[in-house]
Specification:
The protein is of the alpha/beta class. The chain folds into two domains: 361 residues, Spore Coat Polysaccharide Biosynthesis Protein SpsA, Chain A; 109 residues, 3 Solenoid (UDP N-Acetylglucosamine Acyltransferase, domain 1), CATH 2.160.10.10. The chain is 27% helix and 26% strand. Strands 2-18-12-15-11-3-6-7 form an eight-stranded mixed β-sheet, with helices on both faces. Strands 21, 22, 24, 26 and 27 form a five-stranded parallel β-sheet that branches. The chain is globular, with a radius of gyration of 24 Å.
Length: 482
Protein backbone atom coordinates (compact mmCIF):
# COMPACT_ATOMS: atom_id res chain seq x y z
CA UNK A 1 0.00 0.00 0.00
CA UNK A 2 1.31 3.45 -0.92
CA UNK A 3 2.29 5.80 1.91
CA UNK A 4 -0.61 8.32 1.48
CA UNK A 5 -3.16 5.48 1.46
CA UNK A 6 -1.62 3.91 4.57
CA UNK A 7 -1.71 7.24 6.42
CA UNK A 8 -5.32 7.81 5.32
CA UNK A 9 -6.37 4.33 6.51
CA UNK A 10 -4.73 4.90 9.89
CA UNK A 11 -6.38 8.33 10.20
CA UNK A 12 -9.84 6.82 9.59
CA UNK A 13 -9.17 4.09 12.15
CA UNK A 14 -8.06 6.62 14.78
CA UNK A 15 -11.11 8.78 14.12
CA UNK A 16 -13.34 5.81 15.00
CA UNK A 17 -11.37 5.26 18.20
CA UNK A 18 -11.93 8.89 19.25
CA UNK A 19 -15.62 8.75 18.29
CA UNK A 20 -16.06 5.66 20.46
CA UNK A 21 -15.42 7.78 23.56
CA UNK A 22 -18.80 8.92 25.00
CA UNK A 23 -19.57 12.61 24.70
CA UNK A 24 -20.15 12.90 28.47
CA UNK A 25 -16.48 12.04 29.03
CA UNK A 26 -15.41 15.43 27.68
CA UNK A 27 -11.94 15.67 29.18
CA UNK A 28 -11.04 12.07 28.27
CA UNK A 29 -12.29 12.60 24.73
CA UNK A 30 -10.39 15.87 24.38
CA UNK A 31 -7.15 14.23 25.61
CA UNK A 32 -7.70 11.21 23.35
CA UNK A 33 -8.27 13.46 20.35
CA UNK A 34 -5.06 15.44 21.01
CA UNK A 35 -3.04 12.25 21.50
CA UNK A 36 -4.36 10.60 18.33
CA UNK A 37 -3.41 13.74 16.38
CA UNK A 38 0.07 13.46 17.87
CA UNK A 39 0.29 9.80 16.92
CA UNK A 40 -0.76 10.62 13.35
CA UNK A 41 2.13 13.08 13.08
CA UNK A 42 4.53 10.45 14.43
CA UNK A 43 3.17 7.73 12.13
CA UNK A 44 3.35 10.05 9.11
CA UNK A 45 7.01 10.84 9.87
CA UNK A 46 7.71 7.10 10.22
CA UNK A 47 6.07 6.32 6.87
CA UNK A 48 7.88 9.11 5.07
CA UNK A 49 11.32 8.44 6.53
CA UNK A 50 11.46 4.67 7.18
CA UNK A 51 13.51 4.02 4.06
CA UNK A 52 15.75 7.04 4.58
CA UNK A 53 19.31 6.27 5.59
CA UNK A 54 21.51 8.87 7.25
CA UNK A 55 24.24 10.15 4.93
CA UNK A 56 27.38 8.88 6.66
CA UNK A 57 29.63 11.18 4.62
CA UNK A 58 27.95 14.23 6.22
CA UNK A 59 28.60 13.06 9.78
CA UNK A 60 31.38 14.92 11.52
CA UNK A 61 32.61 15.00 15.11
CA UNK A 62 31.30 18.16 16.81
CA UNK A 63 33.57 21.21 16.43
CA UNK A 64 35.13 22.75 19.53
CA UNK A 65 32.51 25.47 19.88
CA UNK A 66 29.72 22.86 19.90
CA UNK A 67 31.00 21.08 23.02
CA UNK A 68 32.06 23.21 25.99
CA UNK A 69 34.37 21.64 28.60
CA UNK A 70 32.75 21.72 32.02
CA UNK A 71 35.91 23.28 33.47
CA UNK A 72 35.32 26.38 31.30
CA UNK A 73 31.97 27.17 32.93
CA UNK A 74 31.77 30.00 35.43
CA UNK A 75 30.23 29.71 38.88
CA UNK A 76 27.46 32.20 39.77
CA UNK A 77 27.63 34.22 42.97
CA UNK A 78 25.05 33.61 45.72
CA UNK A 79 22.67 36.40 44.64
CA UNK A 80 22.79 35.28 41.01
CA UNK A 81 22.19 31.70 42.14
CA UNK A 82 18.93 32.62 43.87
CA UNK A 83 17.79 34.49 40.75
CA UNK A 84 18.63 31.48 38.58
CA UNK A 85 16.79 29.02 40.80
CA UNK A 86 13.66 31.19 40.57
CA UNK A 87 13.72 30.42 36.83
CA UNK A 88 14.29 26.65 37.14
CA UNK A 89 12.06 23.59 37.00
CA UNK A 90 13.44 20.07 37.57
CA UNK A 91 11.72 17.43 35.42
CA UNK A 92 12.28 13.73 36.05
CA UNK A 93 11.28 11.15 33.46
CA UNK A 94 9.19 8.77 35.57
CA UNK A 95 7.31 6.70 33.02
CA UNK A 96 9.20 3.43 33.38
CA UNK A 97 8.38 0.27 35.27
CA UNK A 98 11.00 -1.82 37.06
CA UNK A 99 10.31 -4.89 34.90
CA UNK A 100 13.95 -5.24 33.81
CA UNK A 101 14.82 -5.81 37.45
CA UNK A 102 11.85 -8.06 38.18
CA UNK A 103 9.67 -5.38 39.81
CA UNK A 104 6.06 -4.58 38.92
CA UNK A 105 5.60 -0.95 40.02
CA UNK A 106 7.24 2.34 39.02
CA UNK A 107 11.00 2.00 38.83
CA UNK A 108 11.35 5.17 40.89
CA UNK A 109 10.23 3.35 44.06
CA UNK A 110 12.99 0.70 43.96
CA UNK A 111 15.28 1.08 46.99
CA UNK A 112 18.75 1.94 45.74
CA UNK A 113 20.80 3.13 48.71
CA UNK A 114 20.23 2.59 52.43
CA UNK A 115 16.46 2.06 52.10
CA UNK A 116 16.12 5.21 49.98
CA UNK A 117 14.29 5.05 46.62
CA UNK A 118 15.07 7.01 43.45
CA UNK A 119 12.16 9.29 44.31
CA UNK A 120 13.30 9.74 47.92
CA UNK A 121 16.76 10.81 46.78
CA UNK A 122 15.36 13.20 44.16
CA UNK A 123 13.13 14.93 46.69
CA UNK A 124 15.98 15.16 49.21
CA UNK A 125 18.26 16.77 46.62
CA UNK A 126 15.74 19.48 45.76
CA UNK A 127 14.79 20.00 49.40
CA UNK A 128 18.45 20.62 50.36
CA UNK A 129 18.91 22.92 47.34
CA UNK A 130 15.87 24.99 48.35
CA UNK A 131 16.97 25.22 51.99
CA UNK A 132 20.51 26.23 51.10
CA UNK A 133 19.50 29.04 48.74
CA UNK A 134 16.09 29.93 50.21
CA UNK A 135 14.53 29.03 46.86
CA UNK A 136 11.43 27.11 45.79
CA UNK A 137 12.46 24.95 42.83
CA UNK A 138 9.54 22.66 41.94
CA UNK A 139 9.86 19.01 40.97
CA UNK A 140 7.90 17.86 37.94
CA UNK A 141 7.36 14.17 37.24
CA UNK A 142 6.48 12.99 33.75
CA UNK A 143 4.55 9.78 34.45
CA UNK A 144 3.02 7.27 32.06
CA UNK A 145 -0.29 5.47 32.32
CA UNK A 146 1.77 2.63 33.83
CA UNK A 147 3.17 4.70 36.71
CA UNK A 148 0.72 7.57 37.26
CA UNK A 149 -1.70 6.08 39.79
CA UNK A 150 0.89 4.59 42.13
CA UNK A 151 3.14 7.67 41.88
CA UNK A 152 0.26 9.98 42.85
CA UNK A 153 -0.23 7.99 46.07
CA UNK A 154 3.49 7.94 46.91
CA UNK A 155 4.16 11.67 46.45
CA UNK A 156 1.59 12.59 49.12
CA UNK A 157 4.26 11.90 51.75
CA UNK A 158 6.47 14.65 50.27
CA UNK A 159 3.81 17.40 50.25
CA UNK A 160 5.48 19.39 53.04
CA UNK A 161 8.98 19.05 51.60
CA UNK A 162 8.91 20.07 47.92
CA UNK A 163 6.32 21.41 45.47
CA UNK A 164 5.59 18.51 43.10
CA UNK A 165 3.68 18.68 39.81
CA UNK A 166 2.90 15.72 37.58
CA UNK A 167 1.73 15.22 34.03
CA UNK A 168 1.33 12.14 31.89
CA UNK A 169 3.20 11.42 28.71
CA UNK A 170 1.02 10.51 25.74
CA UNK A 171 -0.76 7.19 25.32
CA UNK A 172 -0.31 5.96 21.75
CA UNK A 173 -1.65 2.88 19.95
CA UNK A 174 0.60 0.03 18.90
CA UNK A 175 -0.03 -1.06 15.33
CA UNK A 176 0.20 -4.35 13.49
CA UNK A 177 3.37 -4.76 11.48
CA UNK A 178 1.61 -6.49 8.60
CA UNK A 179 -1.39 -4.20 8.09
CA UNK A 180 -0.10 -0.97 9.69
CA UNK A 181 -3.51 -0.60 11.36
CA UNK A 182 -3.63 0.38 15.06
CA UNK A 183 -4.40 -2.40 17.57
CA UNK A 184 -7.18 -0.65 19.54
CA UNK A 185 -10.63 -0.51 17.94
CA UNK A 186 -12.08 1.77 20.61
CA UNK A 187 -10.94 3.95 23.51
CA UNK A 188 -11.54 1.12 26.01
CA UNK A 189 -9.21 -1.35 24.27
CA UNK A 190 -7.07 -3.46 26.58
CA UNK A 191 -3.91 -1.98 28.05
CA UNK A 192 -1.56 -4.02 25.84
CA UNK A 193 -2.90 -2.16 22.78
CA UNK A 194 -1.38 1.09 24.03
CA UNK A 195 2.09 2.30 25.03
CA UNK A 196 3.90 5.43 26.27
CA UNK A 197 6.01 6.67 23.30
CA UNK A 198 9.45 7.20 24.87
CA UNK A 199 10.95 10.20 26.64
CA UNK A 200 11.09 12.23 23.42
CA UNK A 201 7.36 12.77 23.92
CA UNK A 202 8.14 15.13 26.80
CA UNK A 203 7.97 18.32 24.74
CA UNK A 204 4.52 17.53 23.32
CA UNK A 205 3.04 16.05 26.52
CA UNK A 206 4.39 18.93 28.67
CA UNK A 207 2.84 21.46 26.28
CA UNK A 208 -0.49 19.60 25.92
CA UNK A 209 -0.86 19.16 29.69
CA UNK A 210 -1.08 22.94 30.21
CA UNK A 211 1.61 22.71 32.90
CA UNK A 212 4.24 24.28 30.63
CA UNK A 213 2.08 27.38 30.23
CA UNK A 214 1.35 27.53 33.97
CA UNK A 215 5.04 27.42 34.88
CA UNK A 216 5.95 30.02 32.25
CA UNK A 217 3.36 32.38 33.78
CA UNK A 218 5.07 31.85 37.15
CA UNK A 219 8.31 33.14 35.65
CA UNK A 220 10.01 29.78 35.19
CA UNK A 221 12.24 29.72 32.12
CA UNK A 222 14.50 26.66 32.19
CA UNK A 223 13.83 22.95 32.58
CA UNK A 224 16.47 20.49 33.72
CA UNK A 225 15.31 17.13 32.32
CA UNK A 226 16.81 13.78 33.30
CA UNK A 227 16.00 10.12 33.87
CA UNK A 228 14.89 9.45 37.44
CA UNK A 229 17.19 6.40 37.55
CA UNK A 230 20.32 8.49 36.87
CA UNK A 231 21.59 9.15 40.39
CA UNK A 232 24.23 11.57 39.08
CA UNK A 233 21.67 13.92 37.52
CA UNK A 234 21.52 16.68 40.12
CA UNK A 235 21.00 20.43 39.62
CA UNK A 236 24.28 21.96 38.46
CA UNK A 237 24.45 25.73 39.00
CA UNK A 238 27.36 26.26 36.61
CA UNK A 239 25.46 24.74 33.67
CA UNK A 240 22.32 26.69 34.60
CA UNK A 241 24.38 29.89 34.78
CA UNK A 242 25.90 29.20 31.35
CA UNK A 243 22.47 28.70 29.86
CA UNK A 244 21.21 31.95 31.34
CA UNK A 245 24.17 34.03 30.17
CA UNK A 246 24.46 32.56 26.66
CA UNK A 247 22.12 32.26 23.71
CA UNK A 248 21.72 28.49 24.18
CA UNK A 249 18.16 27.15 24.13
CA UNK A 250 19.30 23.56 24.59
CA UNK A 251 22.28 22.06 26.43
CA UNK A 252 22.99 18.33 26.30
CA UNK A 253 25.30 16.96 28.96
CA UNK A 254 27.77 14.59 27.33
CA UNK A 255 30.64 12.70 28.89
CA UNK A 256 33.63 10.71 27.68
CA UNK A 257 32.96 7.20 26.42
CA UNK A 258 34.30 4.15 28.21
CA UNK A 259 34.11 0.51 27.13
CA UNK A 260 30.68 0.34 28.79
CA UNK A 261 29.23 3.18 26.70
CA UNK A 262 30.04 2.27 23.10
CA UNK A 263 26.35 1.89 22.18
CA UNK A 264 25.31 5.25 23.66
CA UNK A 265 23.98 8.00 21.40
CA UNK A 266 26.57 10.61 20.48
CA UNK A 267 26.53 14.30 19.60
CA UNK A 268 27.58 15.01 16.01
CA UNK A 269 27.79 17.86 13.53
CA UNK A 270 25.35 17.14 10.68
CA UNK A 271 25.13 19.75 7.95
CA UNK A 272 26.38 22.40 10.35
CA UNK A 273 23.90 21.61 13.13
CA UNK A 274 24.13 19.72 16.41
CA UNK A 275 22.41 16.35 16.07
CA UNK A 276 22.04 13.25 18.25
CA UNK A 277 23.14 10.08 16.47
CA UNK A 278 21.69 6.88 17.96
CA UNK A 279 23.02 3.40 17.17
CA UNK A 280 19.64 2.49 15.64
CA UNK A 281 20.26 5.11 12.91
CA UNK A 282 23.68 3.74 11.99
CA UNK A 283 24.05 1.57 8.85
CA UNK A 284 25.16 -1.96 9.79
CA UNK A 285 28.42 -1.48 7.88
CA UNK A 286 29.28 1.51 10.10
CA UNK A 287 28.36 0.14 13.55
CA UNK A 288 31.95 -0.67 14.53
CA UNK A 289 33.04 2.81 13.47
CA UNK A 290 30.19 4.27 15.57
CA UNK A 291 31.44 2.32 18.60
CA UNK A 292 34.96 3.67 18.13
CA UNK A 293 36.11 5.84 21.00
CA UNK A 294 38.63 7.49 18.68
CA UNK A 295 36.05 9.01 16.31
CA UNK A 296 33.05 9.36 18.61
CA UNK A 297 34.57 10.22 21.97
CA UNK A 298 31.49 11.36 23.87
CA UNK A 299 27.96 10.12 24.48
CA UNK A 300 24.65 11.59 25.59
CA UNK A 301 23.86 11.25 29.33
CA UNK A 302 20.23 12.33 28.70
CA UNK A 303 20.70 15.19 31.18
CA UNK A 304 19.16 18.04 29.19
CA UNK A 305 18.76 21.76 29.92
CA UNK A 306 16.04 23.34 27.81
CA UNK A 307 14.44 26.74 27.41
CA UNK A 308 10.74 26.37 28.19
CA UNK A 309 9.87 29.38 26.04
CA UNK A 310 11.56 27.60 23.14
CA UNK A 311 9.57 24.42 23.81
CA UNK A 312 6.37 26.49 23.72
CA UNK A 313 7.41 28.15 20.45
CA UNK A 314 8.50 24.97 18.68
CA UNK A 315 5.59 22.76 19.70
CA UNK A 316 2.90 25.39 19.06
CA UNK A 317 4.32 26.06 15.57
CA UNK A 318 4.53 22.35 14.69
CA UNK A 319 8.27 22.69 14.05
CA UNK A 320 9.17 19.43 15.83
CA UNK A 321 6.69 17.10 14.15
CA UNK A 322 9.41 15.41 12.10
CA UNK A 323 11.65 14.49 15.05
CA UNK A 324 13.64 11.30 14.45
CA UNK A 325 11.58 8.13 14.96
CA UNK A 326 12.75 5.02 16.82
CA UNK A 327 11.03 1.82 15.65
CA UNK A 328 10.53 -0.64 18.51
CA UNK A 329 9.16 -4.05 17.38
CA UNK A 330 7.11 -6.02 19.92
CA UNK A 331 5.09 -9.22 20.09
CA UNK A 332 1.62 -8.95 21.63
CA UNK A 333 -0.71 -11.96 21.83
CA UNK A 334 1.42 -13.75 19.27
CA UNK A 335 1.18 -10.92 16.73
CA UNK A 336 4.06 -8.79 15.46
CA UNK A 337 3.38 -5.17 16.36
CA UNK A 338 5.33 -1.92 16.29
CA UNK A 339 5.52 0.97 18.68
CA UNK A 340 7.06 4.24 17.54
CA UNK A 341 9.14 6.28 19.95
CA UNK A 342 11.34 9.35 20.08
CA UNK A 343 14.43 10.20 22.13
CA UNK A 344 14.38 13.46 24.11
CA UNK A 345 17.92 14.33 22.98
CA UNK A 346 17.03 14.17 19.29
CA UNK A 347 15.18 17.49 19.72
CA UNK A 348 18.55 19.26 19.96
CA UNK A 349 18.58 20.08 16.24
CA UNK A 350 15.47 22.29 16.50
CA UNK A 351 16.65 24.67 19.22
CA UNK A 352 18.75 27.78 18.68
CA UNK A 353 22.40 27.77 19.74
CA UNK A 354 22.30 24.14 20.91
CA UNK A 355 25.52 22.85 22.46
CA UNK A 356 26.90 20.00 24.52
CA UNK A 357 28.73 20.40 27.81
CA UNK A 358 31.33 17.71 28.50
CA UNK A 359 30.63 16.93 32.15
CA UNK A 360 32.51 14.78 34.68
CA UNK A 361 31.59 11.11 34.71
CA UNK A 362 29.95 11.40 38.14
CA UNK A 363 26.95 13.10 36.50
CA UNK A 364 26.11 9.82 34.79
CA UNK A 365 25.25 7.14 37.33
CA UNK A 366 22.30 5.21 35.89
CA UNK A 367 20.78 2.15 37.55
CA UNK A 368 19.41 -0.01 34.75
CA UNK A 369 20.11 -3.42 36.26
CA UNK A 370 21.09 -5.15 39.49
CA UNK A 371 24.72 -4.92 38.33
CA UNK A 372 24.35 -1.12 38.52
CA UNK A 373 22.47 -1.46 41.81
CA UNK A 374 25.37 -3.45 43.25
CA UNK A 375 27.77 -0.59 42.49
CA UNK A 376 25.66 2.21 44.01
CA UNK A 377 24.90 0.17 47.14
CA UNK A 378 28.57 -0.58 47.74
CA UNK A 379 31.20 1.28 49.73
CA UNK A 380 32.19 3.14 46.57
CA UNK A 381 29.56 5.72 47.54
CA UNK A 382 28.31 7.62 50.54
CA UNK A 383 25.23 9.84 50.80
CA UNK A 384 25.36 13.63 51.13
CA UNK A 385 22.14 15.66 50.93
CA UNK A 386 20.42 13.07 48.78
CA UNK A 387 23.39 12.83 46.41
CA UNK A 388 25.74 9.87 46.06
CA UNK A 389 29.37 10.92 46.47
CA UNK A 390 32.25 8.64 45.47
CA UNK A 391 34.49 7.43 48.27
CA UNK A 392 37.73 9.50 48.10
CA UNK A 393 39.70 6.29 48.67
CA UNK A 394 38.38 5.10 45.31
CA UNK A 395 38.46 8.35 43.34
CA UNK A 396 42.06 9.09 44.30
CA UNK A 397 43.29 5.73 42.97
CA UNK A 398 40.94 4.60 40.19
CA UNK A 399 39.70 6.76 37.31
CA UNK A 400 36.28 5.13 36.97
CA UNK A 401 33.78 2.71 38.50
CA UNK A 402 34.44 -1.02 38.08
CA UNK A 403 32.82 -3.11 35.37
CA UNK A 404 30.31 -5.48 37.00
CA UNK A 405 28.34 -8.21 35.24
CA UNK A 406 25.95 -10.23 37.38
CA UNK A 407 24.29 -13.23 35.74
CA UNK A 408 20.63 -14.08 35.14
CA UNK A 409 20.28 -15.52 38.65
CA UNK A 410 20.78 -11.97 39.99
CA UNK A 411 18.46 -10.17 37.52
CA UNK A 412 15.47 -9.77 39.83
CA UNK A 413 15.95 -7.45 42.81
CA UNK A 414 14.47 -10.08 45.14
CA UNK A 415 16.97 -12.75 43.97
CA UNK A 416 19.83 -10.27 44.09
CA UNK A 417 19.06 -9.40 47.71
CA UNK A 418 18.93 -13.07 48.71
CA UNK A 419 22.31 -13.82 47.11
CA UNK A 420 24.15 -11.00 48.89
CA UNK A 421 24.13 -11.20 52.70
CA UNK A 422 26.09 -7.98 52.54
CA UNK A 423 27.49 -5.93 49.67
CA UNK A 424 31.22 -6.73 49.35
CA UNK A 425 34.01 -4.19 49.76
CA UNK A 426 34.86 -3.25 46.15
CA UNK A 427 37.08 -0.20 46.66
CA UNK A 428 39.89 -1.87 44.70
CA UNK A 429 37.77 -3.76 42.16
CA UNK A 430 38.41 -3.48 38.42
CA UNK A 431 36.11 -6.13 36.99
CA UNK A 432 33.64 -8.62 38.47
CA UNK A 433 31.73 -11.28 36.53
CA UNK A 434 29.39 -13.65 38.37
CA UNK A 435 27.46 -16.41 36.63
CA UNK A 436 25.31 -19.25 37.95
CA UNK A 437 24.15 -20.22 41.43
CA UNK A 438 26.46 -18.08 43.58
CA UNK A 439 25.89 -16.57 47.03
CA UNK A 440 28.00 -14.13 49.05
CA UNK A 441 28.34 -13.99 52.82
CA UNK A 442 28.88 -10.71 54.70
CA UNK A 443 32.15 -8.75 54.82
CA UNK A 444 33.57 -10.17 51.58
CA UNK A 445 36.39 -8.17 49.91
CA UNK A 446 36.83 -8.28 46.11
CA UNK A 447 39.89 -6.73 44.39
CA UNK A 448 41.32 -6.57 40.89
CA UNK A 449 39.64 -8.86 38.34
CA UNK A 450 37.45 -11.62 39.75
CA UNK A 451 35.39 -14.11 37.75
CA UNK A 452 33.07 -16.54 39.53
CA UNK A 453 31.26 -19.18 37.46
CA UNK A 454 29.05 -21.91 38.95
CA UNK A 455 28.38 -24.43 36.21
CA UNK A 456 24.90 -25.82 35.60
CA UNK A 457 23.83 -27.93 38.59
CA UNK A 458 26.68 -26.59 40.72
CA UNK A 459 26.72 -23.99 43.50
CA UNK A 460 29.38 -21.69 44.86
CA UNK A 461 29.09 -20.07 48.29
CA UNK A 462 31.54 -17.30 49.14
CA UNK A 463 31.71 -17.36 52.95
CA UNK A 464 31.86 -14.39 55.29
CA UNK A 465 35.15 -12.50 55.40
CA UNK A 466 36.56 -13.99 52.17
CA UNK A 467 39.13 -11.95 50.25
CA UNK A 468 39.12 -12.52 46.49
CA UNK A 469 41.86 -10.82 44.51
CA UNK A 470 42.53 -11.50 40.80
CA UNK A 471 40.87 -14.90 40.99
CA UNK A 472 38.86 -17.16 38.73
CA UNK A 473 36.51 -19.40 40.73
CA UNK A 474 34.52 -22.15 39.03
CA UNK A 475 32.98 -25.53 39.67
CA UNK A 476 31.03 -26.57 42.74
CA UNK A 477 32.77 -25.42 45.88
CA UNK A 478 33.05 -23.25 48.95
CA UNK A 479 36.02 -21.01 49.59
CA UNK A 480 37.17 -21.64 53.13
CA UNK A 481 40.41 -19.67 53.42
CA UNK A 482 40.38 -15.93 54.16
Amino acid sequence: METPRVIDAVSRHLRKVVESCPTDLREQKKTLDVEMEGFKDLFKTYQETKNTVIDWSKIKPPPENMVVPYADLKQPDSQKTRDLLDKLVVIKLNGGLGTTMGCTGPKSVIEVHRDQTFLDLTVQQIEHLNKEYNSNVPLVLMNSFNTHEETQKIIEKYQNEVVIHTFNQSCYPRFYKESNLPMPNDYQAKKSSWYPPGHGDIYFAFYNSGLLNTLLKEGRQYAFISNIDNLGATVDLNILHHMDTSSCEFIMEVTDKTRADVKGGTLIDYEGKAKLLEIAQVPSSKVEEFKSIKKFKIFNTNNLWVSMKAIDRLVSSGSMKDMDVIVNPKNVDGKAVIQLERAAGSAIQYFRGSIGVNVPRNRFLPVKSTSDLFIVQSNLYSMEKGTLVMNPKRSSTFPSVPLVKLGEEFRKVSDYMERFRGIPDILELDHLTVSGDVTFGPKVVIRGTVIIVANHGSRIDIPAGSILENKVVSGNLRILDH
